[in-house]
Amino acid sequence: MHGDLRAGTAAAGRIQRADDVLDMQRAARKGGTRPVLRWLADRIGATVFLMDSAGTPAHLPYPPHAPLGDAERDLALRGARELAERRLGSVAIDQDGLTCIVLPLDGSRGAAAPLLAAVVPRPAPHELPLLLADATSVLSLSWLAEHTRRKQHRLRIAEAGTREAVLQLLLNGHTSTARQIARALRPALPAMVRVYVIEGSPRARGQLLRDLTDAAEDAWIVTCPVYVDHLFMLTPDDGAPARVWSSELAATCCIGESSAVPLRETATGYAQAFHALAAARGRPERKASFAANPELAPTIGPAAAAWAEAFLSPIRTHRARRAQDPDSAELLATAASWLSFSSRATAHLDIHRNTLSARLTCIQELLGLDLHRLADQAALALALRTVAADMPPPPEADSARAGNMLPTLDELLSLPRVAVWAQQQFRPVTSPDVPACIAETLTTWLRLDARIGPTATAMSISTSAVRKRLTRSEALLKRSLLRSPSAIHDQWLALRALDLAEPSEVPRHFAGLSRNT
Prior knowledge:
This protein is of the alpha+beta class. It is built from 21 helices and ten strands. The protein has helices spanning 2-31, 33-44, 70-86, 128-171, 175-182, 205-215, 247-252, 266-280, 296-300, 302-316, 328-341, 345-349, 353-367, 374-388, 397-402, 409-413, 416-426, 436-447, 452-459, 463-477, 488-500; strands at residues 47-51, 91-95, 98-104, 115-121, 192-199, 220-223, 230-236, 254-257, 261-262, 287-289. Helix 17 (416-426) crosses helix 21. The protein is elongated, with a radius of gyration of 34 Å. The N and C termini lie far apart (120 Å).
């Protein structure tokens, strides 16, 4: 009879143990290690926690309303030491009315698994050691899965940071360095590329990034460091990105596509894609390719190179007086970034706004400019683009420079071929089927340093009306005006060229734009 009783008790114990293991597994499936520790604390009335070999808790102890006291912490630390020194499978310590049991979890190669500690008032429940031993199996699997996810998350962050660094290097013209870093990642950077700027909801950007990465294996896709609602996509010129433009993507995003450009001109491709994006916003298909226009510097010719070299000479010959001061390369990069992104250059360059302000002050002092004036911004933008194009100066440039006979910007803009270029810039807004107020608002805005308020006052209309007309101009010009990178510098230079042109060189339908007609 006693044997039957013992057998029944043993069977009940085995059933209870199996139920406990199933309960722990269910808790693990719900949320990993934390629910299992919470279940253990409730089941045995103990303080339960994971800790490292130094005794530092990896999680808040359970139950959370009973903070870990000095006595419990000292017992757990002592158990961790004995476990390491004596290389035991488990340690049980009785002291000051408490029982502490410490067991190691199973780790993986290269992963130092934590220890499971349980502290309970004496006498400890008889089933405690066996229950904790079963718990280590469940907790080991849960901890290993969480550890793997954390490592994968860190790797994704590191890869995203590396890809963003490659993008920053390409945008700043450091192509060889970008290629060296990119070798560790895939795909390889191609020689000729197309740039896409994809605009969508900031909340959906992470999922969109993953979907595009899976669909376009030969593309470089990163989050834009400047705009939270943009993705930057770089594809080979001979690729076929159209396969990733699903109807679902088109319904939720706007897409701007650049022309094919050499890798070293990624910054140009980015500006083109950004302008195409402005046109895409007003189209039913929500996608647009860049509509190329002739560039001003090649239109002017070699004289532009000589003028730009002289214009930027104070910066290019600048030497930093202190180690922490910006050198000429940093000042040029800052000028280009600020002209493209305005105050968002801090995100593009990863610098503080005070650093940006100090560098802009230095640039203004060196060049004798007032960068609040659109005219000075446009001149600096043209000089930087001309130098970036690596145009050779005319043979007589050296002698002209020695005699201080280099042409001024106004003299370059007065060339007849530049007047033709300027007319091309404004032709979309001067078409007979476009209301005259569109071009009038655009030119007034440009003459008032691209300020909305003064433009509204000068035209006796509301600021919202000015914005609506400028938005219409963006769609017609297929260029961004209100959001950087903007085409305002080219448009200002075109307007200045029309002002300087002879009346006979300006067709009648441009008469309302030029001050001379």
